[in-house]
Amino acid sequence: MPTSSELLDGLAETATRWQPFAIAWHLAIGALLLALVRGWLSRRVLGFAVTLSFISVAIFALVQGNAFNTAMFAVIAVASANAARRLGKDAAVRALNLYAWIGVGLVAFGWCYPHFLEGWGWHRYLYAAPLGLLPCPTLSMAIGLTLIAGLSECRSWAGALAATGSFYGFFGVAVLGVPIDLALLAGSVVLGFATFTR
Questions:
Q1: Residue among 160, 139, 165 nearest 81 (CA)
Q2: Has residue 91 got a pLDDT over 80?
Q3: Number of domains in the chain
Q4: CA angle at residue 189 from 69 to 116, to 5 degrees?
Q5: Could you give the CA distance from residue 1 to residue 153 in angstroms, rounded to a whole number?
Q6: What is the mean pLDDT of the chain?
Q7: HEC per residue, the chain
């Protein structure tokens, strides 16, 4: 079992070594957000797009040699792809209620996730944070989009996300000593509440 410092070193190496892919994911998510705001995006397409981000995390974890993250994100990718097939073809847009505003905050958090880019200048967080590369920013983005688009109505989709986000948020704070992952943990709890109190 790797130590916390070894895990953090591996995550930091992924965030810096594969920065061009992080930039590409920012462009892709930016296009996705534009389509969402314009009402061009169906719930099903949004679900499959988020699934692709999980596959991306699994691939980079495999390259890094992190078997646990590879397995976890392979499983969540399969589960989310299966759930996405059952999402409707209606537009993935809804009124900005409290849950949606929390979702906006989580997407922004995932977009600018700062932990592994120390010393690079704050502006790099806007386009090179490890979105699509590492678990926590990618899960924050996925949970945020789920809350914005009202996908919490699909319990198989939202339940899997809430459980995975809760695990990684807790692990990041309690084991790796990354206090900002508390935002992911809180967002996962909100998604769980939104899903199972309907």
A1: 160
A2: no
A3: 1
A4: 45
A5: 38
A6: 87
A7: CCCHHHHHHHHHHHHHHCHHHHHHHHHHHHHHHHHHHHCCCEHHHHHHHHHHHHHHHHHHHHHHCCHHHHHHHHHHHHHHHHHHCCCCCCECCCCCCHHHHHHHHHHHHHHCCCCCCCCCCHHHHHHHCCCCCCHHHHHHHHHHHHHHHCHHHCHHHHHHHHHHHHHHHHHHHHCCCCHHHHHHHHHHHHHHHHHHCC
For the stretch 27-46, pLDDT in tens is: 999 998 888 888 888 888 88
For residue 41, what are the domain limits?
Answer: 4-196
User: Which residues have C-beta within 8 Å of that of residue 97, sequence separation ≥ 6?
Assistant: none
118 — pLDDT class (breaks 50, 70, 90): low
Q: What angle do CA 77, 164, 179 make, to 5 degrees?
A: 130
Q: Which residues pair with 42 in a beta bridge?
A: 91
Q: Which residue has the tokens 């059952």?
A: 86
Does the pLDDT at position 88 exceed 80?
no
pLDDT at 184: 95
Tokens linked to 34: 């534009």
Q: How confident is the model at residue 72 (pLDDT cuts 50, 70, 90)?
A: very high
According to the model, what pLDDT value does residue 137 have? 95
What pTM did the predictor assign? 0.91
Residue whose pair of structure tokens reads 């502006």 in the numeric block: 123
The whole-angstrom separation of Cα 35 and Cα 46 is: 10
Q: How many residues does the chain have?
A: 198
